[in-house]
Amino acid sequence: MASIREWLTGRKREADTTTSSDSTGIIPPARSAAVATGVTVAEALTLPMVYRAIQVHAIAAKQLSIDTTRYGLTIDDHPLARRPDPDGTRSGWIEQAVVSLASSGNCYFEIVRDAFGVVVALPVLNPLDVRIQTNRDGHTTGYEYRGRKFTPAQISHITLLRVPGSAYGLGPIQAAQPDLRGAISTRDYAAAWLDQSGVPTGVLKSDQSINADQAAQAKEFWKDNAGQKNGVVVLGSGLGYQPIFLSPKDVQFIEAQQFNVTSIARMFGVPASLMLAAVEGGSQTYSNVEQDWLAYVRFTLMAYLVPIEDALSDLMPGAQRARFNIEALLRADTTSRYASYKTAIDAGFMQPEEVRLIEGLGPIIPSKEVTA
User: What is the three-class DSSP state of 309?
Assistant: First the structure.
């Protein structure tokens, strides 16, 4: 838990100021000048849709293998591609890199070399704790991380979106502060509505005239007895209880929160189907969901994978390059895949042995004839 708190360390949101009003009627929760404060990564991750969007990126990326190629041909894995950080797993390293980019727009790898200058490890640093040092021209001269200083040759810095003139990358959370603040305010406002709005849970009504003292006594009697285990309250003097039912749709601001989900999904480039969100006014069929997933890989996920590939490739010797194998994410369903294989075999530019290799199947072993 301590490491999680360190990773999420950010500026705390200032306490909202409350406003007083007449004690009669409904008092909506205070809407303070919260828009004046920035949204930290810690605050943004308290929104389920932000957590889900970053989780989708991380899950999609960490299930991929990293191939080593030379002039476009796959060769034996380089140690950096097989396990970039010996202290962890390959999938864990990829997950940390993608989460760093998605949450802050920056990812920093410490370049660890052995006595011969060979890169042996690339641990991921907490991007929220890294400070970039630049000169007057804006060129990076060094990095500082938790009291340690690094030269540019000791850090590999990749970004999600680099704005010209800035040493730091720009992520969705940093670029869409007003939208995130609006989503957080809507959630908090909806949560505080029942507690702070003064809406009663019900009304005690009488067909007789009662004074203020009798009303107060009836109220106290109801409060003292309504919660008893037997669930039965006996009232007199013509009193009757009428509960007040509030629409969950109105109380929780469902439409506003659905809009926020769509807005955040667009912000992170994640299809609504992967966000587990309903798309109003559109039908989700298998065909268009599949197209959404393909578009997600090509136009969103690759923005995270390509910088990681480049960072690894820059540290590999000679013409070796690191490439994510994204075939698993682009593969069609079984029926469509087998139909395409059949077309390729019938056309003569693929062999059954190649298909079995792609599908992870071994070669066909001829059966031995049994003779009497």
Answer: helix
Length of the chain: 372
3-state secondary structure of 209: coil
Q: How far apart are CA 259 and CA 263, in angstroms?
A: 6
- Assign 182 to helix, strand or coil: helix
pLDDT tens for each residue of 217-276: 777 777 776 655 556 666 666 777 766 555 554 555 667 667 788 889 999 999 888 887
Distance linking the first and last C-alpha atoms of the chain:
70
List all residues 6 or more positions away from 202 whose beta carbon is below 8 Å from its beta carbon: 241, 242, 243, 244
pLDDT value of position 172: 96
Q: In DSSP terms, which residues pair with 369 in a beta bridge?
A: none
Between CA 347 and CA 105, with CA 331 as vertex, the angle to 5 degrees is 140
Do 325 and 64 form a contact (C-beta atoms < 8 A)?
Answer: yes
Closest CA to 235 of 200, 259, 202, 189: 202
- CA 225 to CA 220: how far, in whole Å? 9
Q: Answer whether 171's CB lies under 8 Å from 101's CB.
A: yes
**Secondary structure element (H or E) that encloses residue 288, with its range:** helix 286-296
Is this model's pTM higher than 0.85 or not?
A: no
Which helix (H) or strand (E) segment is 65 a member of? strand 65-70
Q: Which amino acid is at 357?
A: L
Residue 323 · residue 69 · CB < 8 Å: yes
